[in-house]
Amino acid sequence: MVAHLLRLKLTLLRNGLRRSRWQLVGIAIAGLYALGVVATLILALVLLRNASQEIAYTAVVLGGAAAVAGWGVVPLVASATDMTLDPARFTTFAIPMPQLLAGLALGGLIGIPGLATLLVALSTVVTWSRGVLPALSALLGACLGVLTCVVLAKVTTTATASLAASRRFKDTSSIAFMVPLVLLGPIVAAVGRGISASAAFLPDFARTLSWTPLGAPWALAGDVAAGRAGAAVLKLLVSLASLAALAWCWKLLLERALVTPPYAGGAKRKGSRLGLLGVLPATPAGAVMARSLIYWLRDPRYSGSLVVIPLLPVVLAFQGTQTGNYGSLALLAPLSAFILAWSISADVSYDNTAFALHLATGVSGVADRLGRALACMVFALPVVLVFAVGYAAFSHEWAALPGRLGLSLGILFTGLGLSSVVSARYTVTVPLPGDSPFKKPPGNVGQTLAVQFLGMAVLGVLVLPEAALLLAEALTGNALFGWLNLAAGSVLGLALFLAGVRLGGRWLDARGPDLLAQVSINR
Amino acid sequence: MTTPIPAQAPEAAPVAALSIRGLAKRFGGKIAVDGLSLEVPAGSFFGIVGPNGAGKTTTLSMATGLLRPDFGTALVHGVDVWQHPLQAKRLMGILPDGVRLFDRLTGEQLITYAGLLRGMERDVVSARARELLAAMDLTGDAGTLVVDYSAGMTKKIALVSAMIHAPRLLVLDEPFEAVDPVSAANIRSILDRYVASGGTVIVSSHVMDLVQRMCDHVAVVARGRLLAAGTVDQVRAGASLEDRFVQLVGGHTHTEGLEWLRTF
User: Fold this and answer.
1) With left for phi above 0 and alpha for psi between -120 and 50, is residue B77 left, alpha or beta?
2) In B136-237, which ranges are continuous DSSP H helix?
3) A287 touching B (Cβ < 8 Å)
4) A244 falls in which pLDDT band (50, 70, 90)?
5) Helix (H) or strand (E) holding B19
6) ipTM of this complex > 0.85?
7) How far is A3 from chain B (nearest CA, A)?
8) CA torsion, ordered A138, A143, A144, A150, to nearest 10 deg
9) B96, A356: Cβ pair inside 8 Å?
10) Chain A neighbours among B 110-139 (CB < 8 Å)?
């Protein structure tokens, strides 16, 4: 049965790859990246063989503990990244629980993260090949450690899967998770600074961790090598006990999940509240704009990217406190203009097959494009203005405001125009409606990367006039260039915006059914 | 409901409500629809039946402008769907099968959206939306997000979104799937009245009984080809539609064997 489950996982992976050549490219890129990281880590572990026992011990225990913690937390954030062996799909098969657990646990190892962790963990055997006994205990520790990783991941995913069944919880949690993710840089920097300020503390920290379930399996070999046999035995017991406890938790959760289908209820509400659909002009473009705005607020895939915007100043200001130079805050306006304008470049992909309604009603392409772009503009324009003026007030560089504002507006308008064209022609792999914003379905990752990269390159070319004017202003110090830039950003940008809407609209009219066929691949 | 061909046929020359000519579609190596031609007379209640994977949905998608055919054309009241899509779509209301809805809208918002996209007046849209919601027994859930609807409610809200602009032709792919009997009866009486006043309805289904009772015309499709078409009485030729269907499609060959299923 265990072998069956493993074969099922492999078949699912292989069949997933067979669906598209582009997906193979995506997996290859991810694989190369993982290979680089894995190779670096293995090399480090091999080199640690010649380091002092203290250093090797500290590094292996801290690294191992971080890996276990990562396996526990990442699936939470990336809510159900890999559900190919979703336990709920086995409800109707009467698979004995022990076999199901073993099969699912080993199945969790198949895939890039699992294999990478396994390879790196096994390299600790080389680190501790300072004798037969340390090497053997490193092997045992590595196996225990990797199993702990996988089972912990299963516990967290199963627990949250049954907790987070309601749509409202899913919606809010996925947006809430966005916050620490955006602030990751500052958080990591702060933690890193704290650690480097107290490097002497690390060995102690590692020794403490080695008594916890996180670090115990990774400390076995080090203790054996140092001749602390008693400590090694105790830590073996700690890791075995924690693995058993985790497996037991998982079993309980799984048993509950198998008989409790996810409940997706919601409040019943009577109507007569049309919201924005009752406010904006009763034209096709107005309707599309209202619908888009409702989605920006209600769909976590959209609102997740809205949450990023107010966090941007926090991230950049933090960078400023690090270097004492707050110049990077000048990037706020153009950066948020770019992020927001580019965010609608996958609009049709986000609609998924709901786009069929636009096709069925025969709404004109221009109305569709214009509605979506205007919806984005409604809040993007104030954001850009506030950021640009805010920075000018903060830095007292009012003279530079027209030039910077010109560039930002140019990026916003041009970007919205370009996005209107791009999303009318290309589809990219995006999270499906109702899914977590972090959950990308398998799909043509290659085309997604190509579209994103080339699109940004084109945008770069299109805003060259504004960029050149900004450069000229910076070099000559002539404020005239700044005012010219403001004019160029608004006029040229709006011209490109309208051109983009028209071209995108024409393409959409011509290629609507083909777009629908493309988004139907993932539904 | 068994009355064939409504009394009020359009007075003009009998232009077919939907005329499918040699439609063909291939997905990779699989030919889904193989040169299918079909005439749906105006004012008829037309059923398309076929086994799973017969090409019903593919054919209807191509005929309504949702899926580009490899070959062939489709005309709605004489308007070529692929040459003049906007004009043709104004004449049609479409309920596609297996597509998502904009389900973060409330039910009422979704109907209103469908109406406004077609360029209708807001007052007209909201009046009709309220009537349609009442007819489908959805008034109590008008303000609920469609994502929280049950499967049957979702089907009903999609159905009324297809009707809001009073089209001359309704193309409904599996309209009764997951719909409870009471709502199904409501929908049928709405459709009957619509046909009686000169509209044309095309439904696809694999519930033979329903088609036999509800439709006046029927087409049998299998493996991407048209096997039979005409009035229900012509097609069933004395037998029940279900028996005739199985005979046409060539089923009933696998009921032997499977003895082990009775061994428990």
Assistant:
1) left
2) 151-163, 181-196, 208-214, 232-236
3) yes
4) very high
5) strand B18-27
6) yes
7) 27
8) 140
9) yes
10) 112-114, 116-122, 125-126, 133, 139
Return all residues near A361 (Cβ < 8 A) that are at least 6 apart.
B89, B114, B117, B118, B165
Q: How far apart, in whole angstroms, are the C-alpha atoms of residue A273 and residue A251?
A: 46
Q: Rounded to 10 degrees, what is the CA torsion of B135, B141, B144, B150?
A: -80
pLDDT in tens, B219-245: 999 888 998 899 988 988 888 888 888
Task: Give, in order, the Cα–Cα distances in Å from B203 to each of A215, B131, B222.
Answer: 64, 23, 16
pLDDT of A478 reads: 85
A357/B139 touch (CB, cutoff 8 Å), yes or no: no
- Cα atoms in the Cβ-side hemisphere of radius 13 Å centred on A189: 13
Output the pLDDT for position B4. Answer: 43
pLDDT of residue B41: 92
Does A352 touch chain B if contact means CB atoms closer than 8 Å? Answer: yes
- Inter-axis angle of helices A479-519 and A365-395, nearest 10: 140
In angstroms, the CA A311 to CA A297 distance is 17
Distances (CA, A) of B117 to A205, A281, A404, B94, B124: 63, 11, 38, 14, 13
Q: What tokens does A357 get?
A: 């309604």
Each domain of chain B, given as residue ranges in start order, spans 18-98+168-249
Of A83-87, A112-116, A335-339, give the lowest mean pLDDT range.
A83-87
What pLDDT is stored for residue A25 in this prediction? 74
At residue A162, the pLDDT reads 56
CB-CB under 8 Å, B122 with A356: no
SS3 assignment, position B170: strand
Neighbours of A133 (CB within 10 A): 15
Mean pLDDT of B80-90: 91
Taking the Cβ of residue A268 and every Cβ of chain B, the question of whether any pair is shorter than 8 Å is answered with yes
| Cross-chain residue pair A362–B86, CB shorter than 8 Å | yes
Contact A355, A520 (CB under 8 A): no
In the block, which residue shows the tokens 């990219």? A428
Contact A92/B at CB under 8 A:
no
Mean pLDDT over B155-182 rounds to: 90
Region A20-38 average pLDDT: 78
Ordered by start, the domain boundaries in chain A are 2-259, 281-519
Place of tokens 């006029």: A491
Helix intervals (H) in A80-131: 97-109, 112-127
Burial of A221 (0-12, 13-18, 19+ CB in 10 A): buried
Q: Which of residues 23-52 of B touch A (CB under 8 A)?
A: none
CATH number of B18-98+168-249: 3.40.50.300
CB B8 within 8 A of CB B198: yes
